[in-house]
Amino acid sequence: MAVAPPRPQIPPLNSLRAFEAAARLGGFSLAADELCVTPGAVAQHVKSLEAWVGADLFIRRSQGVELTELGQNVLSEFSAAFDQLGLAVQTLRSQATPKHIRIAALPSIAQLWLSPKLPSVREAASDLTISVTAMEKEPNLQREPFDLSIFYQDNLNSPKDTFSTTYEVCKDIIFPVCSPQVAKRLKVPEDLEKELCLHDASWAEDWTKWVACALPHTPLNTDGSVFSLYGLAIEEARNGAGIMMGHQALVEHHLENGSLVAPFDTSLTLDRALVIATAQSARNNPYLELIITTLLGK
């Protein structure tokens, strides 16, 4: 009589994924954000994995969690495994639907830089379907379902991600912009003291940095309205509500059509750039190079 004993079960994939994300990111809350679940769900998944292992993977402290020696020893292997799994899934998707290009972009970039260029992309490749997702945090192109991402990146000289290819579009150059009507009242930067300065919450230091460059020895009060959406602040500047700190790539369309003007000559180049990144899984997509070439204006 044949003997068929039950085979040992491996842990659920969700438990392994929760451990890897929490270990890599340094906490359950950050892992929950990435996995789109609650911190409690991440904690429960990790707890079930620890029960299966028979050992702790994290040290729980009141201020957070810390990997045990065991957790540290296996993290790199789990990250490499999920990277490869992500690459396989992304390659499958990309090859199955090569004419459906998915783009992730910072909301301000999607609205103010990418949107005006999409008609040219459609004209160059009319048979493509292009989906755009606006998001505040740059996606992991190895694991998330995007072919392209368009974000501002700092530390461009740091080691590159081996799972993506990057194209620098332009340096991030900032300078004040306003409507033509408001510009008539501005002769020198000191005139800003009498005007309302508009601010973007994400780039809260823009005005401070530019004033330090334009008026290094002159204190200038730039307090004013704060907006959580850069595009909304730009619209308010176009409507004559005040002066906004423009990022050149994001306001060039409005400068060209005259709805915004730069009242002063002084600009400041920041230590970051607008960058297009392409996923490794999409490198063999023949349509991708056409899109990038069109976006770069080549």
Automatic annotation (TrEMBL):
Keywords recorded for this protein, A-Z: DNA-binding, Transcription, Transcription regulation
One example of a Gene Ontology biological process annotation: DNA-templated transcription
Molecular-function GO term, any one: DNA-binding transcription factor activity
Stored SUPFAM superfamilies: Periplasmic binding protein-like II (SSF53850), Winged helix' DNA-binding domain (SSF46785)
Residue ranges of every copy of the HTH lysR-type domain listed in the record: 11-68
Pfam families: HTH_1, LysR_substrate
Family to which the UniProt record says this protein belongs: Belongs to the LysR transcriptional regulatory family.
PANTHER family recorded: HTH-TYPE TRANSCRIPTIONAL REGULATOR, HTH-TYPE TRANSCRIPTIONAL REGULATOR DSDC
Name of this protein: LysR family transcriptional regulator
Lineage: Bacteria, Pseudomonadati, Pseudomonadota, Alphaproteobacteria, Rhodospirillales
